[in-house]
C-alpha cells in the first residue's frame, strides 16, 4: 500500500488504482498543465491561459471557502495528481433552462483528466462517483451539466456512457455563437 493510500480518509473513494479526495491547495501546481492541455480555443486550438488562470482561481477560492464551488482531485498510484472535477449550485443560465426537476440541483463543472491517464482507466468515473457521493451528503437531489463544442470528441461520449446520465436538451448559445452545449442530468433520488 502506498503512503497516499495509507492516508485515505472516509472522504475519499477508490478505483483506477488511485483515489479521489477533496482538492488541496498543493494540487494546483500539478493541475495547471492538465488544464493547459485541455483549455484551448475551439476555433484555433490555441491555448487560453486566461481561462486556465480563472479556473485555477476558482479552485483556490474553493479551498479557502470563498465561493460555492467544491472540487475533487484524483491521485494516481505514485501520488501524482491525475484529474479534477468540480461542483457548484447551477448558474442562472442553467437554472433558466427548465430541464431541472428537483429543488436542489448541483452542476458538475471542470472535469479534466491527465491526457496520459484518460480514456478508459476509470479516473473520470471515479471523479464523478466522488462528486455524486458528496452531492448526496450535502442534500443535492440531481446533477446537471453542460459540455460545449470544444469537448465534443473528448467529453460528450464519456457523459453518454455514465450510468444514470441522460441528455435532456441543449443550452443554445451557452458558449456564444456556435457554442450550443448539450445538457446531461442524473437524478440522485429514487
Ligand atoms: C471527459 C474525461 C474527464 C473523462 O475521464 P476519463 O478518465 O477519460 O474517463 P474514464 O476512463 O473513467 O471512462 C469511463 C468510460 O467512458 C469512456 N470514455 C471516456 N471518454 C470518452 C469519450 N470521449 N468518448 C467515448 N467514451 C469515452 C471510457 O472508455 C470508459 O468506458 P468503459 O467504462 O467502457 O471502459 C476525460 O476524458 C477528459 O479529461 N477529457 C478531456 C477534457 C474534457 O473533455 N472534459 C469534459 C469537459 S465538459
From TrEMBL:
Pfam families: Acetyltransf_1. Signal peptide: none annotated. It comes from the Bacteria. Gene3D superfamilies: 3.40.630.30. This is N-acetyltransferase domain-containing protein. Residues 18-189 form the N-acetyltransferase domain. One of its GO terms (molecular function) is acyltransferase activity, transferring groups other than amino-acyl groups. PROSITE patterns: GNAT.
Amino acid at each position: 500500500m502506498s503512503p497516499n493510500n495509507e492516508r485515505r480518509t472516509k472522504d475519499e473513494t477508490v478505483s483506477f488504482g488511485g483515489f479521489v479526495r477533496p482538492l488541496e491547495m498543493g494540487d494546483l501546481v500539478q493541475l495547471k498543465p492538465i488544464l493547459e492541455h485541455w483549455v484551448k480555443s475551439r476555433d484555433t486550438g490555441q491555448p487560453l491561459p486566461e481561462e486556465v488562470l480563472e479556473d485555477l482561481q476558482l479552485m483556490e477560492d474553493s479551498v479557502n471557502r470563498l465561493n460555492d464551488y467544491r472540487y475533487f482531485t484524483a491521485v494516481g498510484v505514485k501520488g501524482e495528481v491525475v484529474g479534477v472535477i468540480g461542483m457548484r449550485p447551477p448558474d442562472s443560465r442553467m437554472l433558466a433552462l427548465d430541464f431541472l426537476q428537483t429543488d436542489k440541483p448541483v452542476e458538475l463543472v471542470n472535469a479534466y483528466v491527465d491526457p496520459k491517464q484518460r480514456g478508459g482507466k476509470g479516473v473520470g468515473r471515479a471523479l464523478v462517483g466522488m462528486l455524486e457521493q458528496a452531492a448526496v451528503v450535502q442534500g443535492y437531489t440531481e446533477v446537471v451539466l453542460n459540455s460545449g463544442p470544444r469537448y465534443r470528441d473528448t467529453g460528450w461520449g464519456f457523459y453518454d456512457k455514465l450510468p444514470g446520465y441522460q441528455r435532456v436538451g441543449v443550452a443554445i448559445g451557452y458558449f456564444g455563437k456556435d457554442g450550443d452545449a448539450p445538457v446531461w442530468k442524473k437524478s440522485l433520488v429514487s
